[in-house]
Amino acid sequence: MAHFRTLDDVDVAGKTVLTRVDLNVPMKDGRITDDLRISRILPTLHELSRKGAKVVVLSHFGRPDGKAVPEMSLKPVAAALATALGSSIAFAEDCVGEAPKQAIARLKAGGVVLLENTRFHAEEEKNDAGFAKQMAALGDVYVNDAFSCAHRAHVSTEALAHLLPAYAGRNMEVELKHLEAALVAPEKPVAAVIGGAKVSTKLELLGNLLGKVDKIIIGGGMANTFLFAQGREVGKSLCEKNMADTARDILRDAVTRGCAIILPDDVVVARELRQGAPSKVVPSDRVPADQMILDIGPVAAARLGTILADCRTLVWNGPLGAFETPPFDAGTVTVARTAAALTASGRLLSVAGGGDTVAALRHAGVAEEFSYVSTAGGAFLEWLEGKELPGVAALAAK
Fold this sequence. Notes:
This protein is of the alpha/beta class. The chain has 15 helices and 17 strands. Strand 12 and strand 13 form a beta hairpin.
């Protein structure tokens, strides 16, 4: 991972700092339902403000497709951000032109202004050079604190870093350091828990991990495809039967590369996926024809606990079962709590992220107990796949 500059490397006093964050938070009836992304950016905003910068906050919200869509305005988020910061903040009705210029001119040192949704302009997602110059003209320094948007080469996530002195914010810095510790230069043995519904969406990820980790624990609907590829009957389970050859290739590749792929020894089956549905535990090669696999079984969960106890580093992406629907959450909850306990005892560095992972760990009550839980979905996944992230590459010290 390339060296990147942080807030330790810049004096921001008296400067206008364009600060890209991710305020694309879930909203319902005008209220934020999950404020984790807001709480993660507070250290950077507080530090810039305390050091006497004019803090200009940039973010997208939703997918307005390059048009000003009132329902996707960041204005409602401004109030929540002000409450979280504990100070009033200004709001500018645009992210380029006169509105932000005037709002910034009115700011005192240490003041914060949130600019309107960057995606209200089609040029943002096109990484348009002229639009980038317009935005860059608003500030003296660029700080990127939005790892979750780093897989996008947009003006506010990538182009600005080439036009202004560029630095990683504290959230970005912490994220990059944990990712480096987890896969770039990890303490071995390294395990990866990879769950989710489909093998087809995780092929690049599995291919990259085979050469980097010692054990891959496969759960969720993906595990059914691997079990089927080994000749086991999976009943009515979610299963990509057309991916069986690919799964067999992955299993063979794992052997040659010295990576153990762990599949469940026992599974929880039921006739339907609904809360409280009658279920039973069966060996993973004895799935009844009229039932479906919805979770790993207790023997598998206990075995995974033993495996993790022998590891020093864990990367987790995706649940092990249909965790949103009890009782099919038991496997995910058991293994997540084991990982959290090992982390607390100092025996395991645990990094998790992507998709349903944060929700699954929160459901298990351990999201705060992992070494690091990423709020990034696509960016975390692309990093696991070994891809260069444009927003991170642009921060590399020049």
